[in-house]
Protein backbone atom coordinates (compact mmCIF):
# COMPACT_ATOMS: atom_id res chain seq x y z
CA UNK A 1 0.00 0.00 0.00
CA UNK A 2 1.42 3.39 -0.96
CA UNK A 3 1.97 5.90 1.79
CA UNK A 4 -0.92 8.03 0.69
CA UNK A 5 -4.40 8.58 1.91
CA UNK A 6 -6.51 9.24 4.90
CA UNK A 7 -7.29 6.58 7.45
CA UNK A 8 -10.69 6.72 9.08
CA UNK A 9 -10.50 7.30 12.80
CA UNK A 10 -13.90 5.76 13.37
CA UNK A 11 -13.12 2.55 11.53
CA UNK A 12 -9.46 1.55 11.78
CA UNK A 13 -8.32 -0.15 8.63
CA UNK A 14 -10.89 1.57 6.47
CA UNK A 15 -9.95 4.18 3.94
CA UNK A 16 -12.51 6.37 2.17
CA UNK A 17 -12.52 5.99 -1.58
CA UNK A 18 -12.46 8.71 -4.20
CA UNK A 19 -14.88 11.61 -4.17
CA UNK A 20 -18.47 11.01 -3.37
CA UNK A 21 -19.45 12.64 -6.63
CA UNK A 22 -17.30 10.33 -8.70
CA UNK A 23 -17.92 7.21 -6.69
CA UNK A 24 -21.33 7.69 -5.15
CA UNK A 25 -22.37 4.13 -5.87
CA UNK A 26 -19.16 2.60 -4.62
CA UNK A 27 -18.68 1.02 -1.21
CA UNK A 28 -17.21 3.47 1.27
CA UNK A 29 -14.71 1.24 2.96
CA UNK A 30 -12.29 -1.49 2.11
CA UNK A 31 -10.40 -3.42 4.74
CA UNK A 32 -6.67 -3.30 4.24
CA UNK A 33 -6.82 -6.97 3.27
CA UNK A 34 -8.80 -5.92 0.22
CA UNK A 35 -12.17 -7.15 1.48
CA UNK A 36 -14.92 -4.64 0.86
CA UNK A 37 -17.78 -4.15 3.27
CA UNK A 38 -20.92 -2.15 2.75
CA UNK A 39 -22.31 0.48 5.06
CA UNK A 40 -25.41 -1.65 5.48
CA UNK A 41 -23.25 -4.54 6.69
CA UNK A 42 -21.38 -2.21 9.03
CA UNK A 43 -24.61 -0.87 10.44
CA UNK A 44 -26.02 -4.33 10.84
CA UNK A 45 -22.87 -5.47 12.57
CA UNK A 46 -22.95 -2.40 14.80
CA UNK A 47 -26.58 -2.96 15.75
CA UNK A 48 -25.88 -6.64 16.47
CA UNK A 49 -22.91 -5.68 18.60
CA UNK A 50 -24.99 -3.12 20.48
CA UNK A 51 -27.73 -5.71 21.02
CA UNK A 52 -25.22 -8.32 22.18
CA UNK A 53 -23.76 -5.84 24.64
CA UNK A 54 -27.21 -4.72 25.81
CA UNK A 55 -26.49 -1.18 24.67
CA UNK A 56 -29.61 0.91 24.28
CA UNK A 57 -29.98 3.50 21.53
CA UNK A 58 -28.98 6.82 23.00
CA UNK A 59 -25.72 5.61 24.41
CA UNK A 60 -22.49 6.94 22.96
CA UNK A 61 -21.45 3.73 21.23
CA UNK A 62 -24.78 3.41 19.48
CA UNK A 63 -24.66 7.07 18.47
CA UNK A 64 -21.18 6.62 17.05
CA UNK A 65 -22.41 3.78 14.86
CA UNK A 66 -25.52 5.68 13.80
CA UNK A 67 -23.52 8.82 12.96
CA UNK A 68 -21.18 6.81 10.78
CA UNK A 69 -24.11 5.86 8.56
CA UNK A 70 -25.10 9.41 7.70
CA UNK A 71 -21.99 11.48 8.28
CA UNK A 72 -20.07 10.32 5.25
CA UNK A 73 -21.55 12.28 2.36
CA UNK A 74 -18.11 13.73 1.65
CA UNK A 75 -14.73 12.06 1.91
CA UNK A 76 -11.07 12.92 1.55
CA UNK A 77 -9.68 11.50 -1.67
CA UNK A 78 -6.21 9.98 -1.33
CA UNK A 79 -3.45 12.13 -2.73
CA UNK A 80 -2.83 11.20 -6.38
CA UNK A 81 0.93 11.36 -5.63
CA UNK A 82 3.14 10.53 -2.67
CA UNK A 83 3.61 12.91 0.27
CA UNK A 84 7.16 13.65 -0.85
CA UNK A 85 6.38 13.99 -4.57
CA UNK A 86 6.28 17.78 -4.51
CA UNK A 87 9.62 18.25 -2.78
CA UNK A 88 11.53 20.47 -2.65
CA UNK A 89 8.70 22.95 -3.34
CA UNK A 90 6.40 21.48 -0.67
CA UNK A 91 7.85 19.11 1.93
CA UNK A 92 6.38 15.74 2.89
CA UNK A 93 5.67 16.70 6.52
CA UNK A 94 3.59 19.68 5.40
CA UNK A 95 1.71 17.56 2.86
CA UNK A 96 0.98 14.88 5.45
CA UNK A 97 -0.40 17.36 7.99
CA UNK A 98 -2.19 19.46 5.42
CA UNK A 99 -3.95 16.57 3.67
CA UNK A 100 -4.47 14.05 6.47
CA UNK A 101 -5.26 16.47 9.29
CA UNK A 102 -6.43 19.85 8.01
CA UNK A 103 -8.35 18.66 4.93
CA UNK A 104 -9.73 15.73 6.94
CA UNK A 105 -10.90 18.02 9.75
CA UNK A 106 -12.80 20.31 7.36
CA UNK A 107 -14.39 17.26 5.76
CA UNK A 108 -15.40 15.72 9.07
CA UNK A 109 -17.01 18.97 10.23
CA UNK A 110 -18.69 19.43 6.85
CA UNK A 111 -20.26 15.97 7.17
CA UNK A 112 -21.58 16.82 10.61
CA UNK A 113 -23.08 20.06 9.28
CA UNK A 114 -24.65 18.22 6.35
CA UNK A 115 -26.17 15.70 8.78
CA UNK A 116 -27.56 18.55 10.86
CA UNK A 117 -29.04 20.19 7.76
CA UNK A 118 -30.76 16.93 6.88
CA UNK A 119 -30.80 17.64 3.14
CA UNK A 120 -30.38 14.28 1.37
CA UNK A 121 -29.56 15.97 -1.95
CA UNK A 122 -26.46 17.57 -0.44
CA UNK A 123 -24.04 14.78 -1.26
CA UNK A 124 -22.08 15.87 -4.33
CA UNK A 125 -19.45 18.55 -4.79
CA UNK A 126 -21.73 20.28 -7.29
CA UNK A 127 -24.65 20.34 -4.83
CA UNK A 128 -22.33 21.65 -2.14
CA UNK A 129 -21.03 24.42 -4.41
CA UNK A 130 -24.60 25.43 -5.18
CA UNK A 131 -25.47 25.51 -1.48
CA UNK A 132 -22.38 27.61 -0.75
CA UNK A 133 -23.66 30.06 -3.35
CA UNK A 134 -26.90 30.37 -1.42
CA UNK A 135 -25.81 30.29 2.22
CA UNK A 136 -28.53 32.73 3.18
CA UNK A 137 -31.02 29.89 2.65
CA UNK A 138 -29.73 28.40 5.91
CA UNK A 139 -31.68 30.08 8.67
CA UNK A 140 -29.60 28.90 11.62
CA UNK A 141 -26.62 31.26 11.87
CA UNK A 142 -24.29 28.79 13.58
CA UNK A 143 -25.01 26.08 11.04
CA UNK A 144 -24.60 28.57 8.20
CA UNK A 145 -21.17 29.58 9.49
CA UNK A 146 -20.13 25.96 10.00
CA UNK A 147 -21.12 25.08 6.44
CA UNK A 148 -19.38 28.16 5.08
CA UNK A 149 -16.11 27.41 6.87
CA UNK A 150 -16.02 23.67 6.37
CA UNK A 151 -17.84 23.34 3.05
CA UNK A 152 -15.48 25.98 1.72
CA UNK A 153 -12.55 24.24 3.42
CA UNK A 154 -13.49 20.96 1.79
CA UNK A 155 -13.84 22.37 -1.75
CA UNK A 156 -10.76 24.58 -1.46
CA UNK A 157 -8.61 21.66 -0.38
CA UNK A 158 -10.06 19.11 -2.75
CA UNK A 159 -9.27 21.41 -5.65
CA UNK A 160 -5.94 22.52 -4.19
CA UNK A 161 -4.43 19.04 -3.90
CA UNK A 162 -5.81 18.03 -7.32
CA UNK A 163 -4.18 21.06 -8.92
CA UNK A 164 -0.66 20.03 -7.89
CA UNK A 165 1.66 17.44 -9.39
CA UNK A 166 5.25 16.32 -9.35
CA UNK A 167 7.40 17.18 -12.33
CA UNK A 168 5.04 19.89 -13.52
CA UNK A 169 6.07 21.40 -16.81
CA UNK A 170 5.93 24.73 -15.01
CA UNK A 171 3.85 26.66 -17.50
CA UNK A 172 0.48 26.10 -19.13
CA UNK A 173 -0.47 24.98 -22.59
CA UNK A 174 -3.85 24.66 -24.29
CA UNK A 175 -6.74 27.06 -23.89
CA UNK A 176 -5.74 28.36 -20.46
CA UNK A 177 -2.35 29.39 -21.87
CA UNK A 178 -4.06 31.31 -24.69
CA UNK A 179 -6.49 32.98 -22.27
CA UNK A 180 -3.68 34.02 -19.90
CA UNK A 181 -1.56 35.44 -22.71
CA UNK A 182 -4.46 37.27 -24.23
CA UNK A 183 -5.50 38.87 -20.96
CA UNK A 184 -2.22 39.43 -19.10
CA UNK A 185 0.15 39.83 -22.04
CA UNK A 186 2.40 36.97 -20.97
CA UNK A 187 2.52 34.06 -18.54
CA UNK A 188 5.28 35.82 -16.58
CA UNK A 189 3.13 38.92 -16.15
CA UNK A 190 0.23 36.75 -14.96
CA UNK A 191 2.47 34.97 -12.42
CA UNK A 192 3.65 38.33 -11.14
CA UNK A 193 0.09 39.66 -10.72
CA UNK A 194 -1.21 36.49 -9.07
CA UNK A 195 1.84 36.26 -6.78
CA UNK A 196 1.39 39.88 -5.69
CA UNK A 197 -2.16 39.01 -4.62
CA UNK A 198 -0.97 35.94 -2.72
CA UNK A 199 1.76 37.91 -0.95
CA UNK A 200 -0.52 40.78 -0.01
CA UNK A 201 -3.48 38.69 1.17
CA UNK A 202 -3.89 39.70 4.81
CA UNK A 203 -4.34 36.86 7.27
CA UNK A 204 -5.42 33.41 6.11
CA UNK A 205 -7.15 32.67 2.84
CA UNK A 206 -6.84 31.63 -0.77
CA UNK A 207 -6.05 33.44 -3.99
CA UNK A 208 -8.00 32.01 -6.92
CA UNK A 209 -7.76 32.35 -10.65
CA UNK A 210 -11.35 32.16 -11.87
CA UNK A 211 -13.06 32.28 -15.23
CA UNK A 212 -15.99 34.67 -15.14
CA UNK A 213 -19.27 33.86 -16.82
CA UNK A 214 -18.20 36.23 -19.62
CA UNK A 215 -15.11 34.09 -20.21
CA UNK A 216 -12.71 36.72 -18.81
CA UNK A 217 -10.14 35.61 -16.25
CA UNK A 218 -9.99 37.15 -12.81
CA UNK A 219 -7.62 36.90 -9.84
CA UNK A 220 -9.57 37.06 -6.58
CA UNK A 221 -8.64 36.98 -2.91
CA UNK A 222 -10.81 34.99 -0.49
CA UNK A 223 -10.59 35.26 3.28
CA UNK A 224 -10.52 32.19 5.53
CA UNK A 225 -12.05 29.23 3.70
CA UNK A 226 -14.37 31.14 1.41
CA UNK A 227 -14.51 29.55 -2.05
CA UNK A 228 -15.30 31.03 -5.49
CA UNK A 229 -18.62 29.15 -5.53
CA UNK A 230 -19.81 31.55 -2.80
CA UNK A 231 -19.76 34.38 -5.32
CA UNK A 232 -22.66 32.63 -7.09
CA UNK A 233 -21.94 34.61 -10.25
CA UNK A 234 -21.29 31.70 -12.58
CA UNK A 235 -17.52 31.99 -12.27
CA UNK A 236 -15.43 28.82 -12.49
CA UNK A 237 -12.69 28.10 -9.95
CA UNK A 238 -9.54 27.33 -11.95
CA UNK A 239 -6.48 27.49 -9.71
CA UNK A 240 -6.26 28.28 -6.00
CA UNK A 241 -3.17 28.98 -3.92
CA UNK A 242 -3.58 28.12 -0.26
CA UNK A 243 -2.11 31.05 1.67
CA UNK A 244 -2.83 29.72 5.15
CA UNK A 245 0.30 29.31 7.25
CA UNK A 246 -0.47 25.60 7.63
CA UNK A 247 0.30 25.28 3.90
CA UNK A 248 3.90 26.43 4.20
CA UNK A 249 5.06 27.37 7.71
CA UNK A 250 7.02 24.18 8.55
CA UNK A 251 9.41 24.73 5.67
CA UNK A 252 9.14 28.43 4.88
CA UNK A 253 8.28 29.87 8.30
CA UNK A 254 7.04 33.43 7.73
CA UNK A 255 8.35 33.62 4.14
CA UNK A 256 5.10 33.26 2.23
CA UNK A 257 6.64 34.84 -0.87
CA UNK A 258 9.19 32.00 -1.12
CA UNK A 259 6.43 29.41 -0.79
CA UNK A 260 4.35 31.07 -3.50
CA UNK A 261 7.39 31.26 -5.81
CA UNK A 262 8.06 27.53 -5.33
CA UNK A 263 4.37 26.59 -5.59
CA UNK A 264 4.31 27.57 -9.28
CA UNK A 265 6.74 24.72 -10.01
CA UNK A 266 4.21 22.08 -8.91
CA UNK A 267 1.02 23.37 -10.53
CA UNK A 268 -0.87 20.75 -12.54
CA UNK A 269 -1.78 22.76 -15.63
CA UNK A 270 -3.61 19.82 -17.20
CA UNK A 271 -6.09 19.96 -14.33
CA UNK A 272 -6.42 23.75 -14.67
CA UNK A 273 -7.11 23.29 -18.38
CA UNK A 274 -9.76 20.67 -17.61
CA UNK A 275 -11.57 23.11 -15.31
CA UNK A 276 -11.23 25.88 -17.88
CA UNK A 277 -12.60 23.75 -20.74
CA UNK A 278 -15.39 21.97 -18.87
CA UNK A 279 -16.41 24.67 -16.38
CA UNK A 280 -16.58 22.03 -13.66
CA UNK A 281 -15.04 21.68 -10.22
MN1 LIG B 1 -5.01 24.50 3.70
Question: Can you characterise this structure?
Answer:
Residues 1-69 have low confidence and may be disordered. The chain contains 10 helices and 5 strands. The chain has helices at residues 39-52, 60-70, 92-117, 125-132, 141-162, 174-184, 187-200, 249-252, 256-263, 269-278, and strands at 29-30, 36-37, 205-211, 217-223, 236-242. With 281 residues, the protein is mainly alpha-helical. It has a 3-stranded antiparallel beta sheet, sandwiched between helices. Strands 1-2 form a two-stranded antiparallel ribbon. The radius of gyration is 20 Å and the shape is globular. 46% of the residues lie in helices and 9% in strands. It binds manganese (II) ion (MN). Manganese (II) ion binds at residues 98, 102, 157, 242, 244, 246-247.
Q: Biggest sheet: strands side by side, in what order?
A: 4-3-5
Helix and strand sequence: EEHHHHHHHEEEHHH
Mean pLDDT: 83
β-sheet strand percentage? 5-15%
Could you tell me how far the N terminus lies from the C terminus, measured between alpha carbons in angstroms? 28 Å
Total strand count, please?
5
* Spatial extent as radius of gyration: 20 Å
What proportion of the residues is helical, as a percent range?
A: 40-55%
Unreliable residue runs = 1-69
Tell me the quaternary state. Answer: single chain
List of distinct ligands in this structure: manganese (II) ion
Question: What structural class results from the helix and strand content?
Answer: mainly alpha
State the shape. globular
Which sheet architecture does the biggest sheet show?
A: 3 strands, antiparallel
List the total number of helices. 10
